[in-house]
Amino acid sequence: MMTNSKKQPEWGTSYRLIASEKWRAKSAAMGKDVTRTLVEYARPEPGMQVLDLASGTGEPAISLASRVLPGGHVTALDLSADLLAIADERAHQRGLTNFTTRQGDAQQLPFAENSFDLATSRFGVMFFRDAVRALRGLHRAMRPGARACFVAWGPAEQPYWSSTMAVVHQHVGGSMLAPGGPDPFSFSDSGSLSAALHEAGFSAIEETAPTVPWTWPGTAEEVWEQSRAVATPFQPMLGRVPTEQWPDVQEKVLTAIRQYQVGDEIRFGATIVLASGTKA
Question: What pTM was computed for the model?
Fold first, then answer.
């Protein structure tokens, strides 16, 4: 049996919330192509009832809400009420009245059977404590013929991670990620997310690994500050860097990031896993 058991990360910690506010616009700009890719892949239609899991500050839920009008509705679910408050504010600013948030755990979805026509999750499925259990619960909450569509990170060996967390790892050694802790790359192996969807009862499973733009509209210093603040799974490793060694580590990271600088942008590119399954 495939499981993906993990200790519960502290997604709503204060430093992450502060970073979410400070870098809201630039973070959204960096992730917009991943969001667009997932939304297009999900094929939302007017009237659909949509569930977005691990929605955080609101994407792709907000983008989907505008696509399922008239008559459709999007529910954004996340563990962190504080992050969902940001999502609510963003939806309100866009005048969306068909968008609601719900604090809850993907492992124990608080919804009746056959509630949703479409489900999505952007960089969330990798962090479910037991992915198969969560996907089984999602399968129960979906209507026959409904699709569940996911984006997960591809391999760690790609520009964004190699120029940030991998540089720190080279310096401090040990484990890049805490054993048994959250792993952004838990579905990076080809077919692994498909296998989880199959075990959870989904059919008509699809999986692909495209590379999409992942561009920070600003400086190397900015992207590194934001990365350190929001990269919850890497906090134990970052905490192992001795204070007196941080200037040297930071300079190496910034040098690595600047390899991808083009004008006023940092153009990394991101290899992602895009997968879906259908409830028969």
Answer: 0.91
